[in-house]
Amino acid sequence: MTQVDIAVREPTILGESPFWDGAAGLLWWIDIRAPSIQAWSPATGAHRRWLMPATIGCIVPRARGGLLVGLHTGFHAFDPATGALAPIARPDPELPDNRPNDARCDRNGRFWCGTMENYGRTRTGSLYRLDADRALHKVDGPYIVPNSITFAPDGRRMTFTDTRQGDILAYDYDPATATRRGSRVLLAADGAPGRPDGSCVDAEGCVWNARFGGGCVVRVTPDGRVDRIIELPAINATACAFGGARLDELYVTTGTLRMTLEQLGAQPAAGSVFVLRPGVGGVPEAAYAG
Predict the structure, then answer these.
(1) Are 211 and 161 in contact (CB under 8 A)?
(2) Which residue pairs from 256-264 have beta carbons closer than 8 angstroms and sit at least 24 positions apart in sequence?
(3) Model-level pTM greater than 0.90?
(4) What is the pLDDT of residues 10-59, one digit of tens each?
């Protein structure tokens, strides 16, 4: 049995979008519902928090330093040293109730992000791509809760899901043209407990998926087999990322959203960031090239 430890004991309402900053030795993540960006150092235990002026959906590193942040008001560059936000692009300007959700950069540094109605009540979301020159492209839609965006280590496979629909889909991805094709079901909606939330990939090309309402993370091989299910002491697993000096630690964010008083009493660590060592390493997170 894989040991699961608490990395950061934090009553996060909806933790999401973790990534590891290898140069600084920091784990970054967000809380969507108490809008903030957070960073934690395993070496020192230091934990910082930056409050955001609007609901936040995602963060990714920027090659030029700082972060690219998806806020309800659009995509912004964020400087952790000053706390300054600078607007870059606005998806769905005609849909004021929409906000960014899950996001990731492909291996060439293009930013892929899904949008959704703030509480996931309507099918008004889309999938966007933000190129290094800041050109914003609406790829397709509509979706309810776009999620689980990953790119294989070689950059030639992409995954995606609409959490409400539940199937995690895999596509052939062309890094030269930033196009995907050949949609196929990697993991069916009923293939694991709960619903699919955020994902990451390991060095062997397997997808690790956090299962919201399922209290676990699952490892899915490139041919669609679930070969690991690791249970967590929190029912709402939201996203995961490899980190640590050797990228051999899997960090999992969780949330307390929609938990009953009975569940909160039975799961006192809910909302924390957990860490486990699954015996396989990850790959460095690609940074936005713009």
Answers:
(1) no
(2) 256/11, 256/12, 256/13, 257/13, 257/14, 257/33, 259/235, 263/235
(3) yes
(4) 889 999 999 999 999 999 999 999 999 999 999 999 999 999 999 999 99
Nearest to 258 by CA among 32, 100, 56: 32
Q: What confidence tens digit (pLDDT) does each residue in 139-192 have?
A: 999 999 999 999 999 999 999 999 999 999 999 999 999 999 999 999 999 999
- Judge whether 236 and 213 are in contact, CB under 8 Å: yes
Strand partners, 185: 169
Write the pLDDT tens digit of every residue in 237-290: 999 999 999 999 999 999 999 999 999 999 999 999 999 999 999 999 999 999
- Bridge partners (DSSP) of residue 201 are 207
Q: Integer distance in angstroms from the first to the last C-alpha of the chain?
A: 42
* The two three-digit tokens of residue 207, written as one number: 């997808």
Q: Using an 8 Å Cβ cutoff, are 202 and 280 in contact?
A: yes
Residue tagged 């906000």 (tokens): 99
The tokens of 233 are what?
């002491």
Long-range contacts of 118-127 (CB under 8 A, 24+ apart): 118/55, 118/72, 120/144, 120/145, 120/163, 120/164, 124/92, 124/95, 124/97, 124/98, 125/98, 125/101, 126/91, 126/92, 127/160
CA neighbours closer than 13 Å in the CB half-sphere of residue 239: 27
* CATH domain 4-276 topology: Neuraminidase (2.120.10)
Give just the sign of the alpha carbon dihedral 107, 244, 231, 144: negative
The pLDDT value given to residue 1 = 83
Q: Find all residues with CB under 8 Å of 194, minimum gap 6, and list them.
A: 211, 212, 213, 214, 215, 216, 235, 237
How far apart (Å, rounded) are the C-alpha atoms in residues 14 and 36? Answer: 10
Catalytic residues: 197
